[in-house]
Amino acid sequence: MNLPYSIHKINFVICIFKNDKDENTGAIIVLHYLAFQLANRGHNVYIFCDPIYPHENIFTINSNITKADNFMETLTWEPFTYNNGNTVSIYYNSIGGNIFNTTNVVRWILYHNQKEIEDSWSDTDVCFNLNNFKTYYNNDADKLSVIDYKSDIFFNENRKNRKGFCHIIHKNTPPNGEFIFNEINSTNITNWKEKGYSYLQSLLNSYEYMVTYDHASFYTIAAIMCGCKVIILNPNGNSYEALESANTGTDILLPLEFRLNFPIFMFGVAYGWDDIQWANDTIDLVPPYIEKFKEYDSITIDRFVKYWENKLNIN
Questions:
Q1: Where are the domains of the chain?
Q2: What is the pTM for the complete model shown?
Q3: CB under 8 Å to 214, separation ≥6 — which residues?
């Protein structure tokens, strides 16, 4: 495939080989949503699977995923040629090296980084951070916040009969993590994927609290948008270990420090059991706050596009 050259467009090649039919995870969804947002701003976007959010400016490069005996995945794709003058590849932060061999490279930090992967990057690569996730060389160019809030699905029905706890088994749940779930009689709603987002919305409108060991998840956003307060368990244990207390110089992260690091969780979220009153008192502030965050997201995308238009002299 020959990626076109135009003085008016950038070719963004995004490292996406899966869509939500294959793997319904937050990282996969935000990558696809970024593809849509860049395409919607008039640039060409190339990905390696069918788009979740179709657009006339999104093109698919044929690819194949195979799994080896050790369960590692091997990626192959149709060869493509490109012009240095208008092509930028975008990798999420768990991808090492530069597998597409492009000159202009973006590293999008979607979670706390691993040093051995970051060591494989070039000094000329440009980092953008989804939030305030940890990197080892502090070389972020700017924020790039891209979230599909699914506001048409996740909203508060203001039910009067909310009660109890629910949880979703997700990353950072320790081996003995279900002990607390059992102690508080929390309902496991991990199987929501079998019935879809509308079913999850109904569940999150039924419970008073969702408990989680994951300090950075879209599930938390979905829950508070539905009026279900979130309690982050074991906040100073393994779930926050990757941050290595970078901003505090201590092993103890206070709730305010957590919220400053992850402002999307400012309201309706308790950082530990002792912080529940904050979640109770602020849950009603979530809807207007999310609307402001949508505006913020759009601004970060505009800045990202402008950065590359200026760097590549795209008119």
A1: 11-148, 165-289
A2: 0.88
A3: 170, 171, 172, 173, 220, 232, 239
Overall average pLDDT of the 233-255 stretch: 52
In angstroms and rounded to an integer, the radius of gyration of the C-alpha atoms of the chain is 20
From CA 178, how far away is CA 30, in angstroms rounded?
Answer: 29
Q: Write the single-letter amino acid at 148.
A: D
Q: State the Cα angle at 27 between 259 and 213, rounded to 5°.
A: 45
Question: H or E element: which one contains 169?
Answer: none
H helix or E strand, kind and range, residue 26:
helix 26-40
Convert the pLDDT of each residue in 267-311 to its tens digit: 999 999 999 999 999 999 999 999 999 999 999 999 999 999 999
d(CA 147, CA 7): 29
Written as one string, the DSSP assignment of 75-127 is: EEE---B--TTTEEEEEETT--S-TT--SEEEEEE-S---HHHHTTS-TT-EE
147: alpha, beta or left, given left = phi > 0 and alpha = psi -120 to 50? beta
